[in-house]
Every structure is written in structure tokens, then in C-alpha cells.
């Protein structure tokens, strides 16, 4: 592989880059000027399609394709930029906004031009106060410098960007939840169809893109699709911001071509596992993606290869390393607690299932576990997140995946934990135990008389 | 002709039908269970109970199924739609959903008012598992007083959000909202903003479980003891279709019945609690004759004999009659009564009783766009009106009077001025309110030589009239009313007749000398239909389920008759 030259993070060491003058002097706003003055919106869409840029938000949906779903005869389009970034351990969007806001604004400009959107909403997560301050200042400067506003670069294209700060809910990072929240409603994901491209924000065609996705676009315009495809692995091209955190010596956000391995990240960039310990497992891209064993650390972290390990996908490429003293039950406790807290409460499987899993994992962790709890959890996780799922959005799949993954990869450890960690204070009562094992008076060997139905044996099957 | 496939069988959709999968399946007698969906509210698809396998058959006949289970409520059916509602995957999924819905449910059915008409109970029997595997501690949520009439038990709630959508989409008042997230989510009101809009009681009917309950009905009756009778609300001229639920000689509550042409799925609170006058303790309980300044109870034989003799004598004296017909009379009663008056003498004037008008009509026009997005072509929002005219049958009684009088209906105010020229005044009452007549009006009528009153309540006129006969209340009689839109609707009796009184139809049959056997309202209606042009459509006294549009043609509503309930009973009906 040729030496990799960072593009997204090339200006991160320059604190002056926050000013529009400096950004321009470093070759900024060249891509947007090129797109707006020499290319038609369709040309831009075609170029992005040709680059095979995939959304960096987590699902990896091809960006050009997403843009081309917009109805041809639309009158008004909105662009929503998803900066909710609430997947635990993910902070690449924050770096992009805080350290090089104009690159991001340039990306919005080109994306809006391609999708003919005259209004863009940047939805940033509640906690990103500094990022919002920087971004709003940058937007104001960009407007003065003529990169935003009316008739940009004399192309006749108008664009306004608005910042919207979320209220601290994970679910508002789901694209339709984001739109609902943006409209001032409760952030409950919408049923699909219609997809946002047909009916999104304020019932108008809407594109929802991730910050990092849009930040890639100016570089594709400037350097072409072939340059973009020269990096990465098949079907996963281009540069990607990986964050590495957890029990490592250096917690950083680094830009690398798609398809690095966990080992490379850990050793070359994370400085190895902390306290001289060994690695045990890793979360590849936000906790909803699942779990990588130490033996799987040499699998490329891209959109395709990672699925072969049983993980849900690359996610946000936020790698969290766990050392060999970490207990899987603690990992499960953290993930289930997170999802039980963040489930929006709309769909039954997710609302009730996440809470149930959290309670069960807590009980096991406290010393009240039974071996069959693991089967129950596995069954429950499968009910909640049969991929493709049974709920409106993907939160239930994401909540169930770590359970399924952990049970598939670390079942022995969990069984061992249950066996050796018994605390009478947390044990369930004998009655509860009997009922849950089907040893109640209504168990299958007895029949229940149901008025109107008769002896209802089938009820207990 | 659009053809869909359900569970391997081909079905032809009715012309012009815009159904979702639930409606389509039920139309053909197949059940897809659901909680959060409601035919008059926007689709949220959050209970996930109606998830089925959905696919489509293309022109070449190849069937492609979607890989995931899809909620039936959000799936509009069109030509070639394939639905699978009975596969192992679907049945297993329903069991899982039932299990999940119950893990935080208190299972306090023995003390819950909803028991017996509860979506959770019914679906647990038909779709659930008998065992439960949940051994953790349940979430405990509070009981909330959301208004003076409604209580919210958040622990029983399954978060279908029907009530929230109702207050946002139908009434537009938005008192209810969802608070908190996940399994700690609760329905709530804003502090000091109770759920007190005029349609608020409907949220109790909408609630599939025992979360929202009517305090008026709370712990009064177990629902399985109640007999339901299809009646029409007499509260205003809208003529809402209601079910009057009775046990042990008392009406315990009114519930709305679906009629897409009149009230859709709703009734107002005024009508809902209007049942109380049926149980009023101080109703007229017999026949009375004024003698020596005092009313004396009379057996009906004696009463009819005295009345007939008195009237015959006076008619022979060429005394004229002023007859006043309450707008609370049924069409049949008015027709019978007018026939009798006509039979007595041609020297008669027929007038309409007092029609009270309170304020202005209140119309709720739901707007589809206030709901959430999605293909909702199968959802047709229909307006609901609370009429300012507080009587059920002004139109029907007017038809009858017009027919017999051949001229305009005399108003009550004008009728009072005619009292001096008419020695005999006959008043056919029927209003459930004893204040339908004021003491001044009563005194005016009393100026006549003979005042004859048929009524239900003890009121000022009953205190003064020469002959007073108790008659069946609105709950004790059957018949038909014509509402403000000239729709003729039939209603059944909900209560048995109280002791000592007759229905007005029977009283009049005796007075006319037609006979002493009970008179069926349909016979009278058939007779009226033959004679009165405006009622001609009610041939043979037959009134269809959703009533008869007397003046026009009804628009076709393919989803009409979709009862929103949890049992298979409605399937048998379809």
C-alpha cells in the first residue's frame, strides 16, 4: 500500500484553520467552487456515485445512491446533517467540527448543491457545546466570505445552514428520529416507507448525511473518484476516521484508509494495551456492533469483512479495547444499561426487551444468575433483533447484537461466572424460579379450563 | 378488480376499497391482532402486534416476500399483495410480543375494570403463552387522576399512544403526552391541564387495556354482566350511535357504536353520561287523574275509560284540540299520536314542543396532516359534530306534523298563544329533563279547559294537568329518530318498562281502539313510510345498520363497519 496521506485531518494541527482566510489559503473551498461553477448537480451526484463513497454514520449506505433517490420533480429539499454522534466511544465527528469546521461547511455546500437543497440543518448532539460555538462562528465567517447565502459564486445557488442542538437522546441519531426532533416533536423514529428522500423533514424530500460523509465530498470533487477508490478495501473505499479508546495507552482519533486491522490500530496508534496488559476483546464500532475476540484482531475493519466475524458491521469505527482483566459480564452490564436507558419506548420489543435484558444481566452480575438465564437472554435477543429487525428502527437490533455476540463468543466465561459468583441476596425466589421453568399449576401437563374455549391445553405449549 | 392473496387464498377486494392489511384481512374474516392501530387515527406501528409476512406477486406470477416481518397496519394492500398471517414465524412473533407486553403489566385483572373487554386478556388467550419467563422486578408506575372523570393507571399501560393521538388528531387539544423513555415511559398530562375536552371520555374506549378508566363506571359492574343494546343518543340532533349497557334494571354506561356517516367511533361526554336520566328515581310511575285539586292514581283501565269519555263528550261539543309533540318522541310515537289526534277531531292544531338550542354546533374536523407521515390512503378522517340543538328527533316529528297538518309546523311559542282558542291541550312529552317546560309555560297551558299529558318525568306541567300518564323513557322504548342530516336511525330499548307504565305506542293503540297487544315500532314505521313521502325510504319499517339517508344518497365507505374491538365476535359479523 502506498504511503497514506491524511486528507480529512490534514489541518487538525493548525489552530488557525478555524478562520475562513486560513482555510482558503490552505486550498479550501476549491472543491466547492469547482462543483458550483463547473459541474451540474447531476454531475456531482454521478461523481460521488462513481467514488463509491459509503455513509460514515454506521450503516454504510452508498451516499450517491441515497442522493439519487430524491424525486426528480421535487420543489423543495432539505439537507439534514447528522452530528448527534451518541454511540458510546465515538468522537470523530466532534474532531471534524471542532478542528476543521470549514472543511465540513464546504462538504455541506457541495452536498446541498448536488441535492438542490437550499436549507441545511446541522443536528449536533447536546453535549457538543464547543463544537456548536466553533461551527456557528465558522458559518458566519463563511457567509461573509461568500461561501453561503444568496447566489454563491455567481452560480445562482442559495444556501443557508442552521445549527440545531439536540436534547441528549441517542435515538435522535436515527435519521427519522432526528427529523422528528428537528421538527420540534418527540424524537420517535418514523415508520418507513416513506423514506426521508420522499417525505422527510417538514414533509419535504430530505437527505440525511453524516458529518464525516460530507467532509469527504470536497476531496472527491477536487481529486476525483479514482483517487478516492485508490484507498481502502473492495467495496469500502476512501479514508476513514478511526477512534480508539478504552483500556489503551493513547486514546486518539486517527485517519486511515478503510480496512486497517484492530491490531494495527492498537499497536501503531493506541500505543498498546494499558498497564502492560494483554488485550481480551474489542468493540469494533460503537457498542451496538458487537464484540471482536483477540483472535479476530487481524480482520480488516471495513464495511464488508467485519461482518464475517458475526459483528453487525463497522458502525462508527470507534474501536474500544478491553484488557484481559475485563469481565464480559461488565461489558454486557454497560451495554444493556445504555440501551435500556436510550430505548425511545415506542416499539414493544425494544421498550420491554432492553429493560428485561438489563435487569437480567444486572442480576447475574450481582450473583443471582442461573445458567438458563443465558438461553433466555439469547432467545430474547433473537426476538428483539431478528436482523432485519422487528421494530421501526435499528436500536433493537443494536441492543440485541452485543448479547448475541457475547453469548456466541464468551458463553463459557459467562457460565463460569454464574457458577462461581452466587450471592444469596440476589437470588430469585423459589416460586419465581418454578413459574419461569413452567412448573406452575398451569404447566403443560395440566389443562386449564377457559370459558368458551374449553380445556385449553394448547395454551401452555 | 384488485386481487390479494392471504394465507394462500385469493380474494377480490371490493371496488374502491383502500384497505391496509388488517382491514383487508378482517374484511375476509381473517384476524390480524393489533393494539396501537385505530381506523380513525394515524399509523404509528409501535405495538408490533400486527406484524405479518408481506410480499407481492408481479405480472409474471412470481411472489417475492419481504425479508422482515412488516406491520399490517402500515401496509396498504393493492393488486398482487401477498399476506401471510399464520406462518410459524408470525405466530411465534405474536407470542413474543404478548410476553413482552405483560412483563411490566401488573396482571391485576381481578380488580381491574377492563377485565372482560381487555385487549391483553383476549390476545393472551388467543395469541400468548401461558407461562412467563420474567423473574425480575416489575416497574412500578403511579396511578394518575387525569381529569374529574378519568383515571390513568400507568402501570397497566402498554404505550400504544392511541389516547395521545386522539387528543392531538381528533380533538386538537393535545392534553396527553408521553413522558420519559423506554420502559419508564408514561402517558401524562401537563400539570393543571386536565383532560377535560368535550370528547375526553373516548380515550377510555380507545384504551385497549385498563389504563384509562371511567371513574363514573369504576368498580360499579363487571362488564360481563352487562347486556348491550344498540340505541341512539338523545342528547342532541347528531344522533350518535351508542350501545346502552344494562344490568339489573339499570343502565350503567353508554359506549359509542361505529357509524361512519354519523359519529364515526366517537361520542361526546354529554351523551356518554346522559344515561343517568334513564335511572332517575323520580320518574312518573303510573297514570293520574286530577280530581278535586289533587292527583289520584288510576288503574290504566279507569284512566283510559275516563279520558275517552271526557274527550268524546268534549269533541261532540265541537271543542278543538291543540296537540304538542316533543322533539324527544320517536317517529313512530309522533305518527301514532298524530293519527290519534286526527282520529279524534279534524279541529286540531299540531305544534312542536320546545326545542332547546345551547350555544353553537361544535365540529371537530380531523386533519390527516396533523398525524405522522406515511401512506395512509386507507385512513379517512371524518368530522364529528356536537349539535347545539339538544333533542334527537326535531326533524322526524316535523315530518309527521307536516304530513298531518299539511302546512308549516307551529312552534311551541306560537302554540302557547293558541291555548285560549283550544279548550283541549294534549301534550306528548318524552324529554328526559324535567325542566323542559317552565312554570310560566305550564301556567299558560293550564289555561285550557282540559290538559292531557303523556310524559316520563315529574315536572311542573305534570303537577297541573288533568290527565297525566307515565310513558316509556328514551331507554325503555324502541323506534327511530331522524337526525340533523335527515338520517333515519333505529334504536332498541335498553331497559324493561318500569312498573305501572306503558309505551306511548301501546297507550295510543288502546286509545285508538286498535288493540291491547304490544305494538312493534317497525309496524308503525312501515305504516308511516307508506303515508309520509319524506319517510318513504323506510319501506316495511326496515332501517339498515347505519341508518337511512332520507334526502340523498350515501357515499360508499368500504371500511364502514370496521368495529374496533379485540374479539373475534366482529369477525363473525363480517
Describe the overall structure.
- The complex is a heterodimer of chains A (461) and B (574).
- By secondary structure, chain A is an alpha/beta fold.
- Chain A folds into 3 domains: 15-230, NADH-ubiquinone oxidoreductase 51kDa subunit (Rossmann fold, 3-Layer(aba) Sandwich); 235-323, Roll (Ubiquitin-like (UB roll)), CATH 3.10.20.600; 328-427, NADH-ubiquinone oxidoreductase 51kDa subunit, iron-sulphur binding domain (de novo design (two linked rop proteins)), CATH 1.20.1440.230.
- Chain A is built from 16 helices and 14 strands.
- Chain A has helices at 20-25, 30-38, 41-51, 63-68, 92-99, 101-115, 129-144, 175-182, 211-223, 225-229, 262-269, 328-342, 348-368, 371-384, 395-420, 430-436, and strands spanning 78-83, 119-124, 149-152, 157-165, 206-210, 232-233, 236-237, 239-246, 252-257, 279-283, 292-293, 318-323, 449-450, 454-455.
- In chain A, the strands form 4 sheets. In chain A, strands 3-4-2-1-5 form a 5-stranded mixed β-sheet, sandwiched between helices. Chain A has a 5-stranded mixed β-sheet with strand order 9-8-12-10-11, with helices on one face. In chain A, strands 6-7 form a two-stranded antiparallel ribbon.
- In chain A, a hairpin with a 3-residue loop joins strand 13 and strand 14.
- In chain A, helix 2 packs across helix 9 and helix 5 (92-99) crosses helix 6.
- Chain A starts with 19 loop residues before the first helix and ends in a 6-residue tail after the last strand.
- Mean pLDDT of chain A is 90; it is low at 441-448 and 453-461.
- By secondary structure, chain B is of the alpha+beta class.
- Among the domains of chain B are: 3-98, Ubiquitin-like (UB roll) (Roll); 287-356 and 391-549, 3-Layer(aba) Sandwich (Rossmann fold).
- Chain B contains 15 helices and 26 strands.
- In chain B, helix 8 (331-344) packs parallel to helix 9 (394-405).
- The longest helix of chain B is centred in the middle third of the chain and has 17 residues, at 300-316.
- Chain B starts with a strand and ends with a helix.
- The model of chain B is unreliable at 568-574 (pLDDT under 50).
- The interface between A and B is large, with 52 and 47 residues.
Amino acid at each position: 500500500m502506498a504511503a497514506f496521506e491524511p486528507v480529512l485531518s490534514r489541518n487538525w494541527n493548525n489552530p488557525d484553520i478555524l478562520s475562513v482566510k486560513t482555510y482558503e489559503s490552505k486550498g479550501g473551498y476549491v472543491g466547492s467552487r469547482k462543483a458550483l461553477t463547473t459541474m451540474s448537480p447531476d454531475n456531482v451526484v454521478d461523481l460521488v456515485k462513481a467514488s463509491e463513497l459509503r455513509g460514515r454514520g454506521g450503516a454504510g449506505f452508498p451516499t450517491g445512491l441515497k442522493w439519487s433517490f430524491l424525486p426528480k420533480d421535487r420543489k423543495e429539499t432539505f439537507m439534514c446533517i447528522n452530528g448527534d454522534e451518541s454511540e458510546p466511544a465515538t468522537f470523530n465527528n466532534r474532531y471534524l467540527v471542532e478542528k476543521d469546521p470549514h472543511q465540513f461547511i464546504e462538504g455541506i455546500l457541495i452536498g446541498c448543491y448536488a441535492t438542490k437543497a437550499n436549507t441545511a440543518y446541522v443536528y449536533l448532539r447536546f453535549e457538543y457545546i464547543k463544537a456548536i460555538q466553533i461551527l456557528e462562528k465558522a458559518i458566519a465567517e463563511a457567509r461573509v466570505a461568500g461561501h453561503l447565502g444568496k447566489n454563491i459564486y455567481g452560480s445562482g445557488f442559495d444556501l443557508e445552514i442552521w445549527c440545531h442542538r439536540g436534547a441528549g437522546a441517542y435515538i435522535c441519531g436515527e435519521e427519522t428520529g432526528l427529523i422528528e426532533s428537528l421538527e420540534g416533536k418527540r424524537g420517535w423514529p418514523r415508520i418507513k416507507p416513506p423514506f426521508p428522500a420522499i417525505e422527510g423533514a417538514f414533509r419535504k424530500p430530505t437527505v440525511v448525511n453524516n458529518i464525516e460523509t460530507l467532509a469527504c465530498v470536497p476531496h472527491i470533487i477536487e481529486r476525483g473518484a479514482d483517487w478516492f477508490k485508490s484507498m481502502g478495501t473492495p467495496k469500502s473505499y476512501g479514508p476513514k476516521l478511526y477512534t480508539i479508546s478504552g483500556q489503551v495507552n493513547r486514546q486518539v482519533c486517527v485517519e486511515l484508509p478503510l480496512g486497517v486491522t484492530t491490531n494495527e490500530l492498537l499497536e501503531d496508534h493506541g500505543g498498546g494495551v494499558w498497564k502492560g496488559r494483554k488485550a481480551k476483546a474489542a468493540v469494533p464500532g460503537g457498542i451496538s456492533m458487537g464484540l471482536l475476540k483477540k483472535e479476530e484482531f487481524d480482520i480488516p475493519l471495513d464495511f464488508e469483512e467485519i461482518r464475517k466475524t458475526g459483528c453487525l458491521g463497522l458502525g462508527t469505527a470507534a474501536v474500544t479495547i478491553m484488557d484481559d482483566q475485563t469481565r464480559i459480564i461488565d461489558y454486557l452490564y454497560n451495554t444493556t444499561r445504555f440501551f435500556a436507558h436510550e430505548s425511545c419506548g415506542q416499539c414493544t420489543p425494544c421498550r420491554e426487551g432492553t429493560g428485561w435484558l438489563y435487569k437480567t444481566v444486572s442480576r447475574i452480575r450481582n450473583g443471582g444468575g442461573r445458567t438458563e438465564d443465558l438461553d433466555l437472554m439469547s432467545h430474547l435477543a433473537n426476538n428483539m433483533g431478528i436482523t432485519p429487525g422487528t421494530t421501526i428502527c435499528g436500536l433493537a437490533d443494536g441492543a440485541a447484537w452485543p448479547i448475541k455476540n457475547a453469548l456466541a463468543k464468551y458463553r463459557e466465561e459467562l457460565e463460569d461466572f454464574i457458577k462461581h459468583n452466587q450471592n444469596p441476596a440476589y437470588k430469585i425466589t423459589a416460586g419465581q424460579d418454578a413459574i419461569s421453568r413452567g412448573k406452575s399449576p398451569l404447566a403443560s401437563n395440566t389443562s386449564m379450563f377457559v370459558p368458551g374455549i374449553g380445556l385449553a391445553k394448547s395454551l401452555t405449549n | 378488480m384488485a386481487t390479494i392473496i392471504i394465507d394462500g387464498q385469493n380474494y377480490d377486494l371490493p371496488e374502491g376499497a383502500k384497505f391496509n392489511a388488517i382491514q383487508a384481512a378482517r374484511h375476509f374474516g381473517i384476524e390480524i391482532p393489533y393494539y396501537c392501530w385505530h381506523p380513525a387515527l394515524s399509523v404509528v406501528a409501535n405495538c408490533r402486534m400486527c406484524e405479518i409476512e408481506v410480499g407481492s406477486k408481479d405480472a409474471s406470477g412470481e411472489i417475492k416476500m419481504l425479508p422482515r416481518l412488516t406491520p399490517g397496519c402500515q401496509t396498504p394492500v393493492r393488486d398482487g399483495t401477498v399476506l401471510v398471517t399464520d406462518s410459524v414465524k408470525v405466530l411465534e412473533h405474536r407470542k413474543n410480543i404478548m410476553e413482552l407486553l405483560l412483563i411490566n403489566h401488573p396482571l391485576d385483572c381481578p380488580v381491574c375494570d377492563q377485565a372482560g373487554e381487555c385487549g391483553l386478556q383476549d390476545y393472551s388467550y388467543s395469541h400468548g403463552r401461558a407461562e412467563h419467563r420474567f423473574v425480575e422486578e416489575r416497574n412500578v408506575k403511579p396511578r394518575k387522576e387525569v381529569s374529574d372523570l378519568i383515571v390513568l393507571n400507568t402501570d397497566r399501560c402498554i404505550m400504544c399512544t392511541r389516547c395521545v393521538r386522539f387528543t392531538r388528531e381528533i380533538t386538537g387539544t393535545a392534553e396527553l403526552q408521553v413522558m420519559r423513555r423506554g420502559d419508564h415511559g408514561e402517558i401524562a398530562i401537563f400539570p393543571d391541564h386536565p383532560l377535560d375536552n368535550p370528547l375526553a371520555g373516548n380515550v377510555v374506549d380507545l384504551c385497549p387495556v385498563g389504563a384509562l378508566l371511567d371513574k363514573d363506571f369504576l368498580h360499579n359492574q363487571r362488564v360481563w354482566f352487562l347486556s348491550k343494546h344498540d340505541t341512539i343518543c338523545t342528547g342532541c340532533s347528531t344522533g350518535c350511535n351508542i350501545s346502552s349497557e344494562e344490568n339489573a334494571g339499570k343502565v350503567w354506561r353508554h359506549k359509542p357504536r361505529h357509524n361512519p356517516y354519523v359519529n364515526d367511533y366517537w361520542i361526546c361526554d354529554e351523551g356518554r353520561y346522559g344515561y343517568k336520566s334513564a335511572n332517575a328515581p323520580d320518574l312518573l310511575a303510573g297514570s293520574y287523574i286530577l280530581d278535586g285539586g289533587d292527583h289520584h292514581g288510576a288503574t290504566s283501565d279507569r284512566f283510559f275509560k275516563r279520558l275517552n269519555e271526557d274527550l268524546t263528550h268534549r269533541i261532540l261539543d265541537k271543542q278543538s284540540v291543540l296537540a304538542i309533540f316533543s322533539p324527544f318522541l320517536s317517529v313512530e310515537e309522533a305518527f301514532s299520536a298524530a293519527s290519534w289526534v286526527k282520529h279524534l277531531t279534524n279541529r286540531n292544531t299540531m305544534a312542536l314542543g320546545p326545542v332547546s338550542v345551547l350555544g353553537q354546533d361544535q365540529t371537530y374536523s380531523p386533519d390527516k396532516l396533523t398525524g405522522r407521515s406515511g401512506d395512509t390512503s386507507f385512513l379517512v378522517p371524518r368530522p364529528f359534530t356536537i349539535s347545539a340543538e339538544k333533542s334527537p328527533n326535531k326533524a322526524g316529528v316535523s315530518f309527521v306534523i307536516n304530513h298531518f297538518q299539511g302546512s308549516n309546523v307551529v312552534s311551541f311559542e306560537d302554540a302557547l298563544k293558541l291555548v285560549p282558542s283550544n279548550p283541549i291541550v294534549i301534550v306528548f312529552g318524552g324529554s328526559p329533563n324535567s325542566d323542559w317546560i317552565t312554570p310560566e309555560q305550564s301556567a299558560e297551558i293550564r289555561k285550557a279547559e282540559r290538559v292531557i299529558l303523556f310524559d316520563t318525568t315529574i315536572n311542573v306541567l305534570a303537577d297541573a294537568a288533568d290527565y297525566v300518564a307515565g310513558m316509556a323513557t328514551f331507554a325503555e322504548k324502541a323506534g327511530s329518530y331522524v337526525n340533523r342530516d335527515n338520517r333515519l336511525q333505529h334504536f332498541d330499548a335498553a331497559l324493561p318498562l318500569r312498573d305501572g307504565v306503558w309505551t306511548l305506542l301501546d297507550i295510543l293503540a288502546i286509545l285508538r281502539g286498535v288493540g291491547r297487544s304490544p305494538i312493534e315500532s317497525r309496524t308503525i314505521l312501515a305504516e308511516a313510510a307508506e303515508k309520509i313521502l319524506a319517510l318513504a325510504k323506510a319501506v316495511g319499517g326496515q332501517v339498515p345498520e347505519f341508518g337511512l339517508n332520507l334526502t340523498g344518497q350515501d357515499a360508499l365507505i368500504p371500511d364502514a363497519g370496521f368495529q374496533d374491538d379485540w374479539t373475534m365476535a366482529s369477525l363473525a359479523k363480517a
